[in-house]
Amino acid sequence: MKIYLNRQEIYVGSRCTLKELLLGQSITPEGIAIAVNNRVIRKEDWADTFLSNNDKVMVIHASYGG
Questions:
Q1: Which end of the chain, N or C, is less surrounded by CB atoms within 10 Å?
Q2: pTM (two decimals)
């Protein structure tokens, strides 16, 4: 299935969760937020949130400083 991860087209399995996506892309879950189709998904829900074809997933990394 095709999804867009930070605007880049990638292919994942047909029953892929956000948690599986992170593992498959070697993205560490610390210090990030995830939105699917412009909706922020709580970290507690990543393992239960299944992706659909053409979903747009945005991974936002926290930055520190002033």
A1: C
A2: 0.90
